[in-house]
Structures are given as structure tokens and as C-alpha cells.
Amino acid sequence: MAPSTIFLQSTRVYTPGGLRPAALKIIGERIAAILPHGGAPFEAAVRDFGDQLILPGAVDLHVHLNEPGRTAWEGFFTGTSAAIAGGITTLVDMPLNSSPVTISPDALAEKRAAASARLHTDVAFHGGLVADAGEEALALLRQGIVAMKAFMIDSGLDEFPAAAEADLRRLMPRMAELGLPLLAHAELPSTEAPPVTDPRSYRQYAASRPHAMELRAIELLIRLCRETRCAVHIVHVATAEALPLIASAKAEGLPITAETCPHYLAFCEEEIADGDTRFKCAPPIRDRANREALWDGVRSGVIDTIGSDHSPCPPSLKSLDAGDFTAAWGGISSLQLLLPAVYTGCMERGISLERMVEILSSAPARIVGLDHLMGSIEVGKRANLVVLDDATGSVVSASQLLHRHPITPWDGYRMACTVRSVWLRGIESAVEGVPTPPRGIAIDSRDLPGIQMLNNAPLAAAESMLEKCCGAKRWWQTMADRRPFQSRAHLMATAEQVATMMTESDRLEAFTHHPKIGDVDSLRKKFAATAAWSASEQGSVAAAAEEVLQGLKKGNDDYEQRFGFIFIVCATGKSAAEMLALLNARIGNDRATEIANAAREQRKITRIRLDKLLA
After folding, report:
1. Rounded to 5 degrees, what are φ and ψ at 334?
2. d(CA 130, CA 351)
3. CB 484 within 8 A of CB 368
């Protein structure tokens, strides 16, 4: 049976090119075309959402669903019901507080089995890195997880002990080889924290976990990242004092990213009443000035993502009656509210819609290697979409949320928008906050069709596929020999590693497998094997002015005469005029600099073509 076709239309659709009127053609699970508003055929099925925003579905990297074993806290059915109702189309489940915790292949298999047929969103899984992690942890790395999560301080569960520096150093090099990031709860124990003498005092609780606990942990993570080159994602950054450390690590070129949470951005210490344990989380919510500084980090890009850190528990564990912050479980329920809360805060502070989409959708998908499937509204990606009504606000009622327990500090909070409709892989899956029957899938990165195809292909066929992505023989032969790939992340990490092995002659060989920018004839003739890919990558050339085309032709000839190889630039997303400006800027460089520049651009092109190979 042929897949169904439907068009979603609005005057405000957010694509990588910005907000514009558009009609999205969806065939089956994927976006097949982005057409002008009103561009659907007369007889087509069209859902017209008027002036409401159509955005990519949110991706939440930090969710505790707690199943199996602690389903009384939360579960796959209730948690993903809340997520889809709030505009989250993909989430990643943490390795705790389920029982068993996900620190072995067997525990992961048990979790996947528990999730079967109970998911309203798509769900990927983190593995757990704990103290004295051994062979089971190494085996877990190859089980289709998207990251490993470690606590650097007591997690609150005896079965998930904190990982020491030696534990991290032992596993991070292996994770780097597979392209798996480390997610770290960044607090180190402190002997300098003042004691809590009044367990109902929020200020004493916050002071008992001082900023320095986070800062020391983040400094250690930066050192380990520099040493191992394993990507590190620092979760729930609560102290703005850490932002300069993170910014400096990024400027150094380290693969460091950072997350904060909506509760750190909406609430502040001055407004939390003593005894109101709904607000307890770790690290603690800080003061008003700290909150605004975190927003500055969101605005500037030092903070990459915002995740809910949805960490519910039964009411009895929240110590609501006693109001005891030392006894209460530390976690805030907010999964259904992530998108509305972040939208509200961004709009109040003049943060752009572009930045909001990046931190809620594009960046989280990219960090766990799922950005070829989701995170933006682009042709070929899954039709994971949310329709947001920003003309109608709403007030949170805890009793109406779909989490298992109606306990949240967000009760009574006013949001600046309402989620009207959510689409998961091309099917409307929540309407006005009410989910349809579950149709989410458990994501296993080993099961992506393109990975299976590449792993199972005969050697000659695999080499032929890989040659289209990078024409250097050393590269594509080595890549074919490195199979099987455990995931897209593993494939991409291997591609980067093999690229570093290439000599100058290898790089020059790779350059010859690209057409000149704007040279249509070469696309048709010499580069027939990749003509469609190259034409797509250089799609803006067709609309370029004649003056720009002539500039490219002359510039290409001058560049090749000067350096002995053609001008290489990753054309995807660039206009012909932008590429001409880059050519003119680079032609004054020396040859060694240009070989390095061209090799860097070649690696970008290779990544894009590997994604096309996997699609």
C-alpha cells in the first residue's frame, strides 16, 4: 500500500531558512517537500492551521521515566502521554530511576521490552556509567544507546553509585571511538558546605550545595574532555558562575555542550517559600541574578539545550506535609511544560524563535546523533511537528497534567502559548492536549536501515557507496574495513578519525572528486555518480545572477591556477553570492592554509553525504 500524503499549511512555518508562509507535503513518515503557502494541489488533503506556528517537535534529552521497577513514580505510558501533549516528539530516557538501572545490556533489554507498545513519543535510551564499571559497561556501549550518563555525586540510589575520575577516564576513550557523548551530573562532594539546621529552610538547603560543587566538577569534566576527546554534555547547569568555564572550553575547540532546565530559568530562590518541597532539585534553584545570567547563557549560545530533567516520585517521597528539604526526593515534574515554559521565557526576554528552536529541537537531536532524522523542518526528515498557538495563553493546572502524579511547582504558572496539535512521524498524535493511542517507537541506533545496509553490503559495494562520500581511496577503503558500525554516531566518529590519517596526496585526491562550484557541465559529465547530490548541495547556483556566475567561473580558474586544486566549500545552505565571497576571501591565503581549509570543508561535505547514504 502506498504511503498516505497530507499537507500541513500555515502562514508561519519555521524552517532552517526562517519563519515563512509554507505548505509541508508529508508522505508517510517524512517531509517530502516544502511548498509555498497555498501550493498544495486542489484535490489534496490539507490541514490549514491559519497563523499558528508550525515548529519542529521538541527533543528532550533528560527524562526519568522510571520503568520498569518504579512505575509507581512514572512510566512509559504516562510519561510519554505528557510529553506528546506538550509538543515533545522524541525523548531520551535516563538510566535511573528504573529498577534495574540501565548499566548492563540485560537491563537495557528489559527496559526496551517494558516500553513496547506503550510509547506516545519516540524514545531513545542512555546507558549508565557507575563506579567500578567493567565489561558490562563496555558491552552496553554497543547496544544502540545514544549516550552514557554518570553522576559525579551520590545519585540518591544505592544501585547507581557515583562514577569517580578513574571510572570516567577508563570509559571515555572507548566512548569517543564510538561517537557516544558523556552526560554528566556535574557536582562534586563538598566538605565546606554549611550544615542544615532547619530542614524546612530552602535557603539553608541551597547553601548546602554551594556553587563550588558544580564548578569543581565542570573543571574536571573539561580536563577529561581535553584528555580523551570524548564529547561531554553537562546536564542541568544551575550556576551561572560556570558559564565562563564552558565558554572557554568551547573556544578551545573542545566538544563540550551544556544544558539547563526550565525550573532554573523560571524560578528563583527569593520566591521559594520555606517548606515548599515541590521546588527541591539538585543542583538547587539559585537567586534571581543567577537566573537572569543563565538566560544570558541561553541567548549567547553558551548553553546549548534546555531539558526538562523530569524526575517525578510518589507524593509520599516529596515530604509535602513536613516540608523537609533534607528528606524530600529531589526532582521536578515538568515534562509536559518544557516547550510552553521555554517559549514563554524566550518571548519575555526577546530571545528569537530561531534560538528557541535550536535549543529545544536542533541541538539536542545533534548532540545524540539523531539530527539526520529530526530536529528541524527539512525535506527528508521525519514529520515530527508541533502547532503552537501563541495568540492564546494558558494557566497550568497540575491536576490536568498527564504525568502520573499531579505535583509540580508550575501549578498556576501562566504560559504565553498553547500546544494545539502534535505530529509524530507524519500522524497527528495529540490534539488540544489529548494524545491519540500510542504509536511511538523505541529507538535503537543499530537498527537504522542505512547502517544495516552499509554493514551488510559486500566489500566492493560498500567501498562504492563510501567513495561517493569521499573520493580518497585510503579513506573509503579504510572505512569499509572498519565495519560494522554500531550507529550513525559511530560512523561519523570513524569518518573523522580516518580523515585525520589522510596525507596531503590523499586530500588532493579527494578534492578531484568534486565539481567546481557553479560548474553545471561538470555535474552532468565527470561527476555522474554524485551529480544528484552535488546539484542539491549547489541548489542556490541555479537562481544566481549572471554576474555572480561569471565571478565564480573566473574565481575558480584563478584559484586552481594559484593552488593547483579546485576551490572546495560546503555549499549546503549557502547562496552563490556567499560562496563567491568565500572564494575571494580565501584566494589570498598561502597553499598550506588552503589545503587545511579545503580539507575541513571536505569533511563537512562527507558528513552530509554519509547522512544521505543512510537516509
Report:
1. -155, 10
2. 38
3. no
Q: How many residues does the chain have?
A: 615
Q: How far is CA 31 from the centre of its chain?
A: 19
β-strand partners of 13: 20, 54
- Spatial CA neighbour of 55 closest among 26, 88, 28, 91: 88
3-state secondary structure of 265: helix
Q: Residue 211 — φ and ψ, nearest 5°?
A: -50, -35
Strands 18-27 and 30-35, bridge-based pairing: antiparallel
**Residue 11: its H or E element:** strand 5-15
Which cell numbers in the block locate residue 548?
Answer: 555572480
Q: What does the CA dihedral 222, 226, 231, 235 come to, rounded to 10 degrees?
A: 0
Instruction: Report DSSP letters for 535-592, one per residue.
Output: HHHTGGGGGS-HHHHHHHHHHHHHHHHHHSS------TT--HHHHHHHHHHHTTS-HH
Kindly state the greatest CA–CA separation across the chain: 79
Q: pTM score, two decimals?
A: 0.90
Q: What is the pLDDT of residue 532?
A: 62
Helix or strand or coil: residue 443? Answer: coil
CA dihedral over 595, 600, 601, 603, signed as positive or negative: positive
Rg (CA), the chain: 25
Cis, peptide link before residue 100, omega less than 30° from 0? yes
Residues 6+ apart with CB under 8 A from 126: 92, 93, 94, 95, 102, 145, 146, 147, 148, 149, 183
Q: How is residue 428 written as a grid cell?
A: 497527528
> What angle (nearest 5°) sits at the alpha carbon of residue 374, between those of residues 427 and 103?
105
Is pLDDT above 70 for 540?
no
For the chain, the straight-line distance linking the first and the last C-alpha, in angstroms and rounded, comes to 21
326, burial (CB in 10 Å: exposed 0-12, middle 13-18, buried 19+): middle
- Going by their DSSP bridges, the two strands 88-93 and 58-63 should be labelled as parallel
What mean pLDDT is predicted for residues 292-297?
98
pLDDT tens-digit map of 376-429: 999 999 999 999 999 999 999 999 999 999 999 999 999 999 999 999 999 999
Q: Distance between CA 207 and CA 200 in Å, rounded?
A: 13
Query: What one-letter code names the amino acid at 151?
Result: F
Least confident of 25-29, 238-242, 550-554, 596-600: 550-554
Residues contacting 158, CB < 8 A, separation 6+ = none
259: helix, coil or strand? strand
Q: Is residue 36 reached through a cis peptide bond, with omega within 30 degrees of 0 on the bond before it? A: no
Q: 233 has which bridge partners?
A: 183, 257
**Can you list the alpha helix ranges (DSSP code H) found in 373-519?**
449-456, 459-467, 473-481, 488-500, 504-511
Compute CA distances 2 → 6, 27, 29, 173, 449, whole Å: 13, 9, 12, 45, 19
Q: Phi first, then psi: give them for residue 573, nearest 5 degrees.
A: 85, 0
Q: Following DSSP, what letter does each residue of 82-128 receive, concatenated?
A: HHHHTTEEEEEE-S-SSSS-S-SHHHHHHHHHHHTT--SSEEEEEEE
